[in-house]
Design brief:
The complex is a heterodimer of chains A (about 300) and B (about 250). By secondary structure, chain A is α/β, with parallel strands linked by helices. Chain A has 11 helices and 14 strands. In chain A, the strands form 3 sheets. Chain A has a 6-stranded mixed sheet, sandwiched between helices. In chain A, β4 and β5 form a beta hairpin. Chain A is elongated, with a radius of gyration of 24 Å. Chain A starts with a strand and ends with a helix. The two termini of chain B are about 25 Å apart. Chain B contains 14 helices and no strands. In chain B, α2 packs antiparallel against α4. Chain B is about 80% helix and about 0% strand. Chain B has about 250 residues and is mostly helical. The chains are: A alpha/beta (about 300), B mainly alpha (about 250). Chains A and B meet through α2 and α3 of A and α1 and α6 of B.
């Protein structure tokens, strides 16, 4: 288990992380969500033992990050923000160094490196110096270094930042593959990633924990949750007709699209369907909305800023 | 403290030296400069004495600029590129990292020193020198380089800008080099008690190096350089802890 208790970090007068407490069980992919400068990276730096917390503590599988730092680092794989690497080394030299620093020697070292290389498809660039690689390859080298020792805890700071859609997909598949039995913490400001990848999301802004929920739970906080959107020929008439339904709370027209929000009584989707049938409108598109993460994110983080 | 971890860090660091032209430039410059000093300024032939005094005499001045040039990148570069975060979140301690990097740089500085062996052969062909004194000179020279290097490593951890690290290192090394001479002592004269001024005078690299290179391997001189290196490495460790996240 990963456990943080009142984790706090100050940089001079700036309170970067403010009494953050949480626990993560194995089998969880936890997403840190937050605007830039929210304290996501600082929290990760504290969890990995790079930064000492100003106060508070954290434990990784029972190892205190301050008192038992080396043991805690041994069970962790870490991809720092921007995936920094020794650019002048070749991929092979670098991964060998990472494996040796984790205590592997000889055949075991080569096996570990080989396995990570295979997993991230790095074989073709093994002899190349890292600084000559594309961004996608660099990120994969950073990930290879982090999973080399098959760690039970993975901390990945913006693992897909700056990658193209195919590379993003690849990295996400890897994280998904590794997620059973493991604790994976990723930070991101890409909202779709939370939905695609995480089993739990924490929204952090100005160093404070504002929401801690499943992605589905967050979606339920959206006012679009269970709303019905439709594109219909007679927009205004449809809006007033649907607005009268007891299942509807309000209607909204935006960019040629009508959205009906649920009042909470009855089944709005079915009621809207019935009306469409009765009136015989020409409908090109009907959709039951699951909720919009970007809206939830804005609401939660803006409320804080105000 | 695990020697295996120190070794892993050291090997990585050495690999980086030789992956860039820095290593070759440094070696060539060192060899050319030390030859130029020895033969032109030192008057190696004109003296008609079979020893390497004119060779070693200029080492402190050569090191004053060349060693900070090697040391400036040690930590400043790690911080600039963010690799320090990678290095210090591996299961190795900060002390192991500090020592590993220092040893790598020290060995690296020792390499051109070893490559000056032709001058040793030359002096043995031309005359009959006291080879014990020459060995002492080499040992002293390498120890002094270690002192300069430890200072540079520590100051390199204080900034992410290599130029700043270089200039700071040269200034502090210069102070240590000359602390026995009036240029430094006059700064303190008049407001520090004589005992402390004597203490500062005793910190001079030049004085300790001179006595080693004259063939007097006094334990005190060796302890002196060991203490200087140890002190600056401990300082390096502390500066690193304070500054690594900035």
């Amino acid at each position: 288990m990963l456990k943080a208790t009142d984790l706090t970090r100050r940089f001079g007068p700036l309170l970067a992380v403010d009494r953050l407490s949480f626990e993560v069980e194995p089998g969880t992919v936890l997403g840190f969500l937050g605007p830039n400068g929210a304290g996501k990276s600082t929290t990760m730096k504290m969890l990995t033992g790079f930064l000492a917390p100003t106060s508070g503590s954290a434990e990784i599988l029972g190892h205190d990050i301050r008192r038992d730092s080396v043991a805690a680092r041994r069970v962790m794989g870490y991809l720092p923000e921007g995936a920094p690497l020794y650019g002048e080394l070749t991929v092979a030299q670098f991964l060998t160094f990472a494996a040796e620093a984790r205590g592997f020697r000889g055949d075991e070292r080569d096996r570990r490196v080989g396995h990570a290389v295979e997993r991230l498809e790095l074989k073709s660039v093994m002899g190349q110096t890292i600084e000559t690689l594309s961004k996608g390859f660099k990120r994969r080298v950073g990930l290879a270094q982090a999973i080399l020792h098959d760690p039970p805890v993975l901390i990945l700071d913006e693992p897909t930042d700056g990658l193209d859609p195919n590379q993003k997909h690849q990295v996400r598949s890897l994280i998904r593959e590794m997620s059973p039995e493991r604790i994976i913490v990723i930070s991101t400001h890409i909202l779709e990633e939370v939905d695609a990848l995480c089993s739990r999301a924490m929204i952090i802004a100005q160093g404070r924990l504002l929401a801690d929920d499943t992605p589905r739970g967050l979606l339920e906080r959206s006012r679009y949750h269970h709303a019905v959107s439709l594109e219909v020929d007679a927009l205004d008439r449809a809006a007033s007709r649907l607005g009268e339904l007891p299942e509807a709370r309000e209607v909204e027209i935006r960019r040629g699209r009508l959205t009906v929000f649920p009042s909470g009584q009855g089944d709005l989707f079915r009621a809207v369907g019935k009306v469409i049938e009765q009136e015989g409108w020409q409908v090109s598109h009907v959709q039951l909305e699951s909720g919009r993460l970007d809206e939830v994110f804005r609401n939660i983080t803006r409320k804080e800023a105000a | 403290m695990s020697a295996a971890n120190v070794f892993v860090v050291m090997r990585r660091e050495l690999a980086s030296y030789f992956a860039t032209p820095v290593a070759y430039v440094f070696i060539v410059i060192f060899l050319v400069m030390s030859a130029a000093f020895t033969f032109h300024l030192g008057g190696f032939y004109e003296r008609e004495i079979a020893d390497l005094e004119p060779f070693f005499r200029f080492h402190p001045w050569l090191y004053l600029f060349l060693v900070p040039a090697v040391g400036m990148r040690l930590w400043a570069e790690e911080r600039k590129h963010g690799t320090i975060e990678l290095l210090l979140t591996l299961p190795i301690t900060a002390s192991e990292a500090v020592i590993g990097k220092f040893v790598a740089a020290w060995l690296f500085v020792g390499l051109p020193l070893v490559l000056t062996f032709p001058i040793w052969i030359t002096v043995n062909v031309l005359g009959d020198p006291d080879n014990g004194v020459i060995v002492a000179g080499y040992v002293g020279s390498w120890l002094m380089a270690g002192g300069f290097l430890a200072i540079s490593a520590c100051l390199s951890a204080a900034t992410r800008n290599q130029v700043v690290a270089f200039i700071l290192s040269v200034v502090v090394c210069f102070g240590f080099l000359l602390s026995g001479l009036p240029i430094v002592l006059d700064l303190f004269r008049g407001w520090l008690p004589q005992a402390l001024i004597d203490g500062i005078a005793n910190l001079s690299f030049l004085m300790h190096f001179d006595s080693i290179s004259r063939g007097v391997i006094d334990l005190r001189n060796i302890i002196y350089f060991t203490l200087v290196i140890g002190f600056w490495l401990v300082a390096n460790r502390i500066v690193l802890e304070i500054r690594k996240a900035d």
